[in-house]
Each structure stands twice: as structure tokens, then as C-alpha cells.
Amino acid sequence: MYTKIILCIVQFFSTFSYAQNLPPRPVMQTADKIYHHAIQHKETTSSVIAVVDYELSSNQPRMWVIDMKTHTVLENVHVAHGRNSGNIYAETFSNQPRSLKSSIGVFKTGHSYFGIHGKSIRLNGLEPGINDNAYDRGIVIHGAYYIHDTHYAHDNIRHNGRSFGCPAVSPNTMKALNQHLKPGSLFIAYYPDHYWLKHSKYL
Questions:
Q1: How far is CA 3 from CA 13, 16, 17, in A?
Q2: Is-above-0.85 flag for pTM?
Q3: How far apart are CA 14 and CA 8, in angstroms?
Q4: pLDDT for 23-50, tens place per residue?
Q5: What letter does residue 5 receive in the DSSP assignment?
Q6: Helix, strand, coil % in the chain, rounded to nearest 5
Q7: In what helix (H) or strand (E) does residue 105 lie, and over which residues does it extend?
Q8: Would you give the distance in Å from CA 128 to the centre of its chain?
Q9: How far apart are CA 145 and CA 189, in angstroms?
Q10: Where are the alpha helices (DSSP H) in 45-191?
Q11: In this structure, CATH architecture of domain 24-199
Q12: C-alpha separations of 196 from 100, 124, 199 in Å
């Protein structure tokens, strides 16, 4: 009897810890599959990845930087979506130039550079037809004054702005990302898109 009680307590705190720290379970499971596929096929050597859950509101911290070897969350921060992808919630995505929409799928970070938004990180889309125009579109991770890392409980309070399609973060977050995401790291933009989930080679 005592053993069952202890197991229940352990399971409860395990679930609580998971919910408090890692992305939602379907997102984390998807990230695990993508990471292990990339490692197996030698597409990355970095254990640190970034995961964005575009199903969540832009007023929530919906981007995680995770060390996949230990499932340790290094950062959990706010991130923008493209202005034509939706208002507070992202609803549509595109791979097309000048669409001003975000793209989903698996990316790899390139070298950082200094642009109009300061030190930024290039993204290379790895999935044909899904995000492979990202580099030519100028889709990068950059800091932006219109992104704040303050949590707002109610979505009807408009808080964080939108980008031209880039996963923009706050300037303070950008400093941390430049430390965590070295060239060749995976960047995963998740959304429960049926076509992507069914046809991605990473899944």
C-alpha cells in the first residue's frame, strides 16, 4: 500500500515538473523525434535546440531552448510570428517570399551577423516546400523592441507585436540565444499541421 502511495506521489510531481518546464507533451515528443533523426543522419552535432509552439498565444512564453541530452530547459521566452500569420494567435503559414508569414518545420541555424536589428542568427529551412525559402526570404532570429518577456494572463490585452515572418525575440533574449544556439543547431517551429506531420522526413 505504501509503495503505491509513493509511486502516485512520484508520478504526480513528475507530471507537474514536466508541465512547468518542458513544452506541451505533443510538442516535446515531436521535437524528440526530429532531434534523434537529425543526430542519426548526422545533420547536427549540437544537443541544444530551440522549439517554438505556434499553437500558443504570442502573449505566452512559447519558445524553449533545450539541452536534449538532459531535457534541461535553458530558456523559455516569448517569440513573434509573422503579421500575416494571424493576430495574437498564428493561424496560417507560408514558404513564399513577401508573404509576411511565419514558416513551420525544421530549420538549422547558420552563422550570426550584425544587421539592422543587431546581432542576428540566420535560419536555413530543411524541408522542401515547407520552409526551404527561409534563407532567401531573410527569415532570421533577431531581437525586436516590440517583444517583451512579461507574461500577460489574458489574451485580450494586446502585448507582443508581430514580425515580417521572423521568429523575433526580445533584445535581452537575443543575447542569450547568441550564446546557446551555435551554427548547426536545430530550430523547430511546431504547429499541428496535418500535411507537415504526415510528410516530414523527420517524423
A1: 16, 20, 21
A2: yes
A3: 10
A4: 999 999 999 999 999 999 999 999 999 9
A5: H
A6: 30, 25, 50
A7: strand 105-115
A8: 19
A9: 22
A10: 134-137, 171-180
A11: Beta Barrel (2.40)
A12: 20, 17, 5
